[in-house]
Amino acid sequence: MKKIGLFYGPLGGSTERVAKKVAAALGNENVDLVPVKNAKSADIEKYENVIYGMSTIGKETWDADKSANDWDLFLPEIEKVDYSNKIIAMFGLGDQITYDLHFVDALGLVANTILPKGAKIIGQVETEGYDFRESESVFDGKFIGLPVNEDFEPELTDERVNAWVSKIKNQFK
After folding, report:
1. Is 41 in contact with 68 (CB distance < 8 Å)?
2. What beta strand segments (E) does the chain contain?
3. Whole-angstrom Cα distance, residue 165 to residue 159?
4. pTM of the full predicted structure?
5. Which of these, 155, 72, 145, lies nearest to 103 by C-alpha position?
6. Going by C-beta distance under 8 Å and a sequence separation of 6 or more, which residues neighbour residue 61?
7. pLDDT tens by residue, 126-170
């Protein structure tokens, strides 16, 4: 397996903890952890195997005119990339209790940005076991990536990460 670029943000907190768990499950030697805060499209271009890790912010922030979210700054960079020779997996952190109408929406936002650019996205996850009302990350009845709820279900994170990694590991180049 070629090296995986795991682009994650924001720094610190739950998203970074889960990124490190994913890297450990894949074997830290196989993964470069790259914070999206200062990453550019040229950084993504270095990898054929890419994982995007993100948090989903609340509706009040989505609707704000100005957001300081690391992914808001990184999104224009991912739009510049040709994904036709890349394999992409994604995980997203979200709160399915407080934001049951927007659960891990960021996964859907990123997917809708990269799919038209030829992305092959692996690692879809069944919606069973998640209690939410709506999510922009559900494509053809499955989450487009791994949802993680560190706020209300942290006891399930390790199990979910390990099951997901075992599913995607052999699909990378």
Report:
1. no
2. 4-9, 31-35, 49-55, 87-93, 120-122, 125-126, 138-139, 142-143, 146-148
3. 10
4. 0.92
5. 145
6. 67, 69
7. 999 999 999 999 999 999 999 999 989 999 999 999 999 999 999
Instruction: State the Cα–Cα distance between residues 126 and 41, nearest whole angstrom.
Output: 30
Task: Give the tokens for residue 48.
Answer: 């054929």
Q: Give the distance from CA 124 to its chain's centroid.
A: 11
Distance CA 60, CA 83 (A): 31
Tell me: pLDDT of 5 over 50.
Answer: yes
The encoded tokens of residue 43 equal 């950084």
What domains are there in the chain, each with its CATH number? 4-171 (3.40.50.360)
Say how far apart CA 71 and CA 8 lie, in whole Å: 9
Contacts of 87 (CB under 8 A, 6+ apart): 48, 49, 50, 120, 122, 171, 172, 173
Which pLDDT score, from 0 to 100, does residue 49 have?
A: 97
Q: DSSP letters of 108-152?
A: HHHHHHHGGGT-EEE--EESTT---S--TTEETTEESSEEE-TTT
